[in-house]
Structure prediction request, 357 residues.
Amino acid sequence: MDVHCQDIAGTIAENCDIAARRVVHQQYQLHPEFEQRFGPAGALFALEDVQYHLRFLVNAIAVGRPALFADYVAWTRTVLASRNVPADVLVDNLHILGRVLCPMLPASGQPLLQEYLDSALALLPAGTGEPPSFLDPATAEYAVATDYLDDLLQARRAEAFAMIQTVLACGTSIQDLYMRILQPVQHEIERLWQLNRITVAQEHYATAATQSLIAQLYPRIFSMPRCGKKLVATCVGEELHELGLRMVCDFFELEGWTTLFLGASTPTPALLQMVAVQQPDLLMVSATMTFHLREMSSLIAATRRDPGCRDIPILVGGRPFNLVPDLWRQVGADAYAVSAAESVPAARALLNHGGEA
Prediction:
């Protein structure tokens, strides 16, 4: 990765807390009406928002990709708009963020910072519409997917599970179940939260219910003949979006691989020890959120330095890599997979040919 970008990202990261407090303080000074407009808790929510802005900004700069920060800001606009916070508050916030950060940076870093802020601000006027649904009425699975979603949001887990069992009994493969029903529904749940149409509790319940459903499928998944290959899979740091990587592991299991899914919050030394002992054919690392990219780079670098792990091919995946298709190179991976369905072919291409899958 570009050393200059990493240096600027590091400087911003070191000053995140003080910068966030200054941004909120200045915005409330400029807009004293915010006290009444957003209530006593408003400043605390604003501080949390700015801290998120900074985390995404730091990681986008670290990998030299303004598009990652712009994507986050566009997403944030929708979240705020659905909660009756107008776009001008976000625009004002980003301008103040630039004024606060610039004095903290060397002169050479100030134009770089402004480039990232400008690229995000340029998209905001066009971001007035809501993101489209992930459930397509033109698909054969639409009715089942919408019924499954409705059952989850109404806390009818037993009915949801019974419907899925019927779908499987009618011949739908587990792979198609994942890609055509469960994954689109999960994305739709996240969209509905973004639009403030469901609560955090509903989102968590629905996700946990789908995880429970998947667990019930394991006797079928693990009964496949083994092919002799092994995968270790982990989410970066405290990345909480584990469901996608669980599905990826199941795709490998269905192809006969033995998978070791470590989930999130596995300390790097423990991960390296696991990889060194198990000597898998492949290590897969997932990051759904852009603000975990620097941590992913550090984890991959540590893997490359470890004598027991350095020769293990590394496949990465997650939303940032779909937004920037060559991003996998910058974090030090050997290849990336677009989706769970593409993960096994990507792994096969990587192991058979090396280099880009």
In short: The mean pLDDT is 94.
